[in-house]
Amino acid sequence: MQEDDTLRWLPRLAARGGPRFLQIADALQGAVADGLLKPGDRLPPQRHLAALLDVDLTTITRAYDEARRRNLLEGRGARGTYVAAPKVELTAVLDLSMNTPPPPAGLDFDDLLKQGLSQVLMGADAALLMTYHLGGGSDVDRQAGAQWLKPMFGPVDAEQLVVCPGAQAAIAASILALTEPGDVILAEPMGYPGLRSAATQLGRQLIAVPADQHGMRPDSLEQACRQHQPALLYLNPTLQNPTATTMPLDRRQALLRMAQRHHVRIVEDDPYWLLAEAPPPPLASLAPEQVLYISTLSKCLTPGLRVAFVLVRDPVLRERFQAALRSFALMVSPLSAALATQWILGGSAYSLMEGVRKEARLRHRMARDLLAGRYSGAGDGLHVWLELPGYWSPHQLARAADSEGIAVTPAEAFASNLADASTVNAIRISLGSIKDRSRLQAGLQRLSQLLARRPDAFSTAVV
After folding, report:
1. What is the DSSP string of 255-267?
2. What pLDDT, on the 0 to 100 scale, is given for residue 459?
3. pLDDT (0 to 100) of residue 427
4. Which pLDDT tens digit goes with each residue over 113-171?
5. Which end of the chain is more exposed for a tag (fewer CB within 10 A), N or C?
């Protein structure tokens, strides 16, 4: 194609048409869709295009970056930038298995990330971001953590916080700090699989305590304490993973009384509190010295930050916790911690979280409509716990869904005691991991149709 042909797509930039780099990227996308630009066509060098459109070079660079993000362009080194060939998806799995925050509508996450990193790099010594740091986070990181926890606790002493590389690391460090090999940890029958994994690897015994529609039962906790003399109690009381139960205040108070009576420390894993609609106060606000509190950014913002804030009010326990953490995770990545701090102190974290919260609630309404009669979610958070009709088992349903191109998580993945897994007939559906809302709708519709059929309607292909 002649150069004149490759310039036919050039847009007329409008003063009120939005950011110029997006106008250019949109024009590129339209030209590819209309056939004005075809795979393999070479685009003008960035400086040449900047001169043609009378914009600065940065605008063209951002436009090309955006076009690459949309899979429209590909760079070929010194040979230049070319229109990319269409990407063929060999799989079309609709992933309802991974609990990640949904992308907020109307918020450009790529731009938010680039701006945040740019602000971090402008305000920090790059060498300090790439070297070793003392564990537990810098003073400013802990101040950001104190601000993040303010909705749960009001003013928080930043010195009582430890910054960790994610909630899983915080759980493992808690087990090391609060228990000895062979000790018993109590938890609800269905819970976060990472707890079972950490307890098993560290040689601790995980015992399930019966729960009802409000969470762990106080009478069952007392019986378990008498029988097993546990060293630790693990609870996820708000939008519990996987059941989506939020424990009411009176149940929280009753469990705290039982734990105090038997001198049992509590780890409160609370990733969803900020996504919930008017949740009760955390256990750690009701019994500050007894509860170690974990709040991760993975569920409210993005898992890639790998940052969690742990509130440990007891200074002796805090030192033990930090020593345990250092035994396997020396520090949070300084760049990730700096970005999280920049977002929190600069306000971007709250815009992102509010967008996640709104999008999650829209998706819950969609799930309620499409899974009519089966939906039992709380209307917020990232997941739904779906009880199955008697003719389906969780394992059968997960396999059948997989054959339909849908990934879901069966109850057995969450069982604290694998021997009891067969007694729970449910699956967890995660609503955030499919970026496009229309694809999520298609997945939920397919799943609803699948639930209405019986397993004998499916046959296994033999090849």
Report:
1. HHHHHHHTT-EEE
2. 52
3. 96
4. 999 999 999 988 888 899 998 779 999 999 999 999 999 999 999 999 999 999 999 99
5. C
Number of neighbouring beta carbons within 10 Å of residue 404? 14
C-alpha span between 435 and 66 (Å, rounded): 17
The answer to whether the beta carbons of residues 273 and 279 sit under 8 Å apart is yes
Q: 3-83 maps to which CATH number? A: 1.10.10.10
CA separation, residue 242 to residues 77, 114, 215, 424 (Å): 47, 33, 12, 12
Domain ranges of the chain: 3-83, 94-106+349-457, 132-346
Distance of alpha carbon 138 from alpha carbon 136, whole angstroms: 7
Identical topology for domains 3-83 and 94-106+349-457 = no
Task: Give the C-alpha separation, 293 to 428, whole Å.
Answer: 25
Side-chain half-sphere of 175: how many Cα atoms within 13 Å?
A: 28
**pTM for this model (two decimals):** 0.81
- For the domain bounded by 94-106+349-457, which CATH number is listed? 3.90.1150.10
**Segment (H or E) for 152:** helix 150-153
Structure tokens at 172: 């493992």
Q: Which CATH number fits domain 132-346: 3.40.640.10, 3.40.50.1460, 3.40.50.720, 2.40.30.10?
A: 3.40.640.10
Token look-up 């699948």 returns: 450
Identify the bridge partners of residue 428 per DSSP, sorted by sequence position. 385, 409
Highest-confidence range of 73-82, 240-249, 367-376, by mean pLDDT?
A: 240-249
Three-state SS at 146 = helix
What percent of the chain shows pLDDT beyond 70? 95
Tell me what the mean pLDDT of segment 285-306 comes to.
97
Provide the 3-class DSSP secondary structure of residue 81. Answer: strand
